[in-house]
């Protein structure tokens, strides 16, 4: 659901006025989790990502290039399954991720990926904003994986909200560990003006997803503030992780916990300041008695009510 | 430059079928605005290009005001050539597109930026296919001028777009610039293109096309029918060939119709981009 919205916006809000009319039968591009299972969490050696999809578009007449199927080519169309371009692109990008740690987020990685899938590297020339397509694909995959992890029963009930947030961010950032050596390049690709709309949208969806999982349902102005702050925490941790060489990124997680705590403390401070201002406002124009009553009320409210 | 793309897929378009079969027949038997027999069209077109071969490049520059260079640059940019690719440029007689692809692959700057290994560079093959030997000779001459006479990567082949001599699934890219208008049976050329391309290979067609913008259309028609044949007479000494040229542009199917023909040949992700308001259109597609 998120991804089709993103892709629609991506197609419509591009730099030029190129319009692409979609076929009526365009299906959602969310890739089933079984297909992506070995992708982000393990190292680059997860080689079975295309096998669930492989049997969908295997071409029986591909093994014999000189099989003389010239005149019969047109008739074959009805028999062999039509591989849609979107599927093919997803397969190529997925296979390319394996080459990213070595070749970077570049066309070379995508051409190597296309060779793995058995498709001519020319197809890379037709991806819009080539390297960005690869990075965005990866971001989508990680978001999908995160959603799957949450759905499949992550234990969040016993944790306080700040710990829940820290845990979710940690899970998400750990997906990037295999690509850490080339992650600065991915960040710079995402920061390119042409790609900013999409990368911003993807990060917004990620932050939204994390807040949903934490259990937040607020829809007032607070919504923007919460997401902005979480976005800030996520980004700073991500950047900190780039230069963290400690064992299992321990320093990063410490940094993350501190930042989350800061954010919650900030929230508390703002709330206290608000109440204090209310009290002052209440006190002005009333007697000292009224002021004292107001302060007592506030103190009992603060100690008795929930902190979040 | 207004950009517009439409994607079509192989699906049932039976409603359009009859009308475009009719227009296909008319393309096969039309030589400009004249009606000719199918068998003769190929010969007549051959004569045209034999006549214009020597002044082809100069006339291109004059008629388009040098814009044809930009159009071809855009075509090659869209193709994104890579080292080791096998590319076929059909009706590419004088080699404009082929030279640009060669430069794109071998450019020093590109090789410095990307990790290109020399072995794959060696494997690059650019085939230039043209039905007319005079055009090919002009192309070979230009190659010699650039010092590419004996270069293994550029191969000049005489052949017919409707019956290519290349193997199935052997090409990474197929381009045809200002050539598909001249073939007798467009669908045969498209079918051949589909045949020789590998899976994932791209089809790109640069062609003069139809202008719909109201006032601009009138200006364009005026320019086409009043100015170009006169230029042909003046510079190339051949009015009839250039009259054929402008008439054949009008008889060629419009952008949408041509896009559906490409889709019918089996291609996926068929798109087109109008340049200069539709004077020129680049159709692109992928074989999957």
Keywords:
heterodimer; A: 308 residues; mainly alpha; elongated; B: alpha/beta; Rossmann fold; 7-stranded mixed beta sheet; two-stranded antiparallel sheet; globular
Question: How would you describe this structure to a colleague?
Answer:
The complex is a heterodimer of chains A (308) and B (288). With 308 residues, chain A is mostly helical. Chain A is 61% helix and 0% strand. Chain A is built from 14 helices and no strands. Chain A has helices at 2-12, 33-36, 51-54, 73-76, 85-97, 100-103, 107-117, 130-151, 161-174, 183-191, 196-214, 222-242, 250-283, 288-304. Chain B is of the alpha/beta class and 288 residues long. Chain B has a single domain (30-209, 254-287), classed as Vaccinia Virus protein VP39 (Rossmann fold). In chain B, 50% of the residues lie in helices and 19% in strands. Chain B has a 7-stranded mixed sheet, with helices on both faces. Chain B has a two-stranded antiparallel ribbon with strand order 1-2. In chain B, helix 8 links the parallel strand 4 and strand 5 (154-158). The longest helix of chain B has 23 residues, at 214-236. The two termini of chain B are 30 Å apart. The interface between A and B is large, with 40 and 40 residues.
Rough outline of chain A: elongated
Q: What distance lies between the first and last C-alpha atoms of chain B, to the nearest angstrom?
A: 30 Å
Kindly report the CATH topology of chain B: Rossmann fold
Strand content of chain A: under 5%
- Helix-strand category of chain A: mainly alpha
Low-confidence runs of chain B (pLDDT<50, min 5 residues)?
Answer: 1-16
The portion of residues assigned to helices of chain B is 40-55%
Task: List the secondary-structure elements of chain B in sequence, H or E.
Answer: HEEHHHEHHHEHEEHEHHHEE
List low-confidence stretches of chain A: 1-81
Query: What average pLDDT do the residues of chain B reach?
Result: 85
Spatial arrangement of strands, main beta sheet of chain B: 5-4-3-6-7-9-8
């Amino acid at each position: 659901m998120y991804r089709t919205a993103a892709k629609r916006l991506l197609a419509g809000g591009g730099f030029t006025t190129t319009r692409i009319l979609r076929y009526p039968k365009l299906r959602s591009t969310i890739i089933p989790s079984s297909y992506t299972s070995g992708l982000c969490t393990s190292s680059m050696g997860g080689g079975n990502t295309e096998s669930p999809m492989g049997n969908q578009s295997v071409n029986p007449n591909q093994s014999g290039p000189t099989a003389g199927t010239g005149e019969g080519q047109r008739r074959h169309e009805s028999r062999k399954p039509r591989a849609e371009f979107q599927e093919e692109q997803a397969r190529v990008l997925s296979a390319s991720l394996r080459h990213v740690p070595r070749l970077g987020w570049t066309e070379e990685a995508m051409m190597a990926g296309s060779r793995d899938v058995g498709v001519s590297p020319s197809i890379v020339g037709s991806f819009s904003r080539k390297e960005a397509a690869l990075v965005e694909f990866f971001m989508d995959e990680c978001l999908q994986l995160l959603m799957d992890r949450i759905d499949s029963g992550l234990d969040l009930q016993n944790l306080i909200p700040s710990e829940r947030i820290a845990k979710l961010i940690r899970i998400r950032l750990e997906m990037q560990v295999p690509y850490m050596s080339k992650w600065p390049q991915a960040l710079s690709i995402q920061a390119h003006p042409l790609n900013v709309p999409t990368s911003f949208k993807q990060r917004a969806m990620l932050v939204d997803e994390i807040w949903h999982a934490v259990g937040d349902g607020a829809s007032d102005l607070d919504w923007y503030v919460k997401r902005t702050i979480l976005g800030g925490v996520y980004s700073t941790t991500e950047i900190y992780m780039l230069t963290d060489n400690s064992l299992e990124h321990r320093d990063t997680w410490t940094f993350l916990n501190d930042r989350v705590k800061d954010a919650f403390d900030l929230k508390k401070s703002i709330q206290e300041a608000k109440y204090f201002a209310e009290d002052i406002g209440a006190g002005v124009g009333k007697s000292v008695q009224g002021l004292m009553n107001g302060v007592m009320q506030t103190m009992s409210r603060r100690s008795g009510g929930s902190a979040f | 430059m207004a950009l517009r793309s439409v994607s079509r897929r192989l699906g049932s378009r039976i409603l359009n079928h009859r009308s475009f079969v009719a227009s296909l027949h008319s393309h096969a038997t039309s030589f400009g605005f004249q009606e000719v027999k199918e068998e003769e069209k190929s010969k007549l077109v051959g004569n045209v290009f034999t006549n214009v071969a020597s002044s082809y490049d100069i006339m291109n520059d004059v008629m388009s005001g040098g814009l044809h260079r930009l159009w071809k640059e855009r075509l090659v940019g869209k193709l994104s050539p890579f080292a080791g690719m096998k590319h076929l440029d059909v009706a590419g007689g004088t080699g404009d597109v082929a030279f640009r692809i060669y430069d794109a692959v071998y450019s020093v700057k590109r090789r410095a930026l990307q990790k290109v290994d020399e072995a794959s560079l060696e494997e690059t093959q650019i085939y230039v296919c043209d039905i007319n030997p005079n055009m090919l000779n002009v192309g070979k001459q230009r190659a010699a001028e650039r010092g590419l006479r004996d270069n293994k990567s550029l191969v000049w082949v005489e052949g017919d777009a409707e019956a290519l001599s290349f193997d199935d699934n052997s090409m990474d890219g197929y381009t045809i610039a200002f050539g598909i208008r001249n073939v007798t049976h467009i669908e045969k050329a498209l079918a051949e293109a589909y045949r020789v391309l590998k899976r994932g290979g791209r089809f790109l067609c640069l062609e003069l096309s139809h202008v719909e913008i109201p006032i601009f259309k009138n200006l364009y028609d005026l320019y086409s029918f009043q100015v170009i044949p006169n230029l042909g007479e003046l510079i190339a000494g051949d009015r009839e060939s250039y009259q054929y040229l402008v008439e054949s542009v009008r008889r060629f199917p419009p952008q949408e119709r041509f896009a559906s023909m490409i889709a019918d040949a089996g291609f996926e992700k068929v798109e087109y981009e109008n340049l200069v308001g539709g004077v020129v259109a680049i159709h692109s597609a992928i074989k999957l």
